[in-house]
Amino acid sequence: MEGLQAFLLGGLAQSSLILAGLAVYWWRFSPRVIGSLAGFGAGALVAAVAFTLIPESSDLSAPETSLWLLTGALVFLVSDRFVESRFGGDEDGSPMGIVVGSVVDGIPESLIFGIQIATGQAISASFLAAVWVSNIPQALAPSASLAESGWKKARTVGMWGMVVLACGLTASVGYWLGVGLGATGGRAAALAAGGLLAMLTDSLMPYAFKKAGVWAGVFTVLGFAASLAGS
After folding, report:
1. Pick from 18, 128, 158, 182: most CB atoms within 10 A?
2. What is the mean pLDDT of residues 59-83?
3. Domain-by-domain residue ranges, the chain?
4. pTM for this structure?
């Protein structure tokens, strides 16, 4: 039952990908709006790392926490480079690259949800909200490009549905790792924090600044403050 709960929670956190993919067929979003949303999501994720994930790793020593942070960053960077070399980056407009790249971004987030359930930790509403919001700009821009190239709504929804399904399965894997292998919430939290920080630096924050300019900084602070208020 808890394995199913992990699957549903992992899917829920990524469900905004589907909603954003549909939204481009109903409304037109300016680059500044998309970039501002990306900045807001980035700020919310920074707060989630600082006030949710790092405190959850407090049972580890400082050197061990640092090691898991670096491991998470390396996992993200290696996976992301593989996706770019194999399928092409987001700028190339490759649908498969977009799908796999979104899965790579969602893996550390989904994994921590599953392990939190397995280890009996409370699910942070602010972290869940931060993940949900940060996915919106990630889906808006490529979905708009695909819609302009002739993709129908069903095809776009199916593409993002695959991502949501993959992240739900990843959350289930996190749960069974927590149960079967004794993975601790602290180690998983530090791993996820490292992966998220690498993702923010590598993609989400530069993307926000590229689209929204100086407003990206303002919305990053707003996202941070909103996540802090809800933590």
Report:
1. 18
2. 85
3. 2-230
4. 0.77
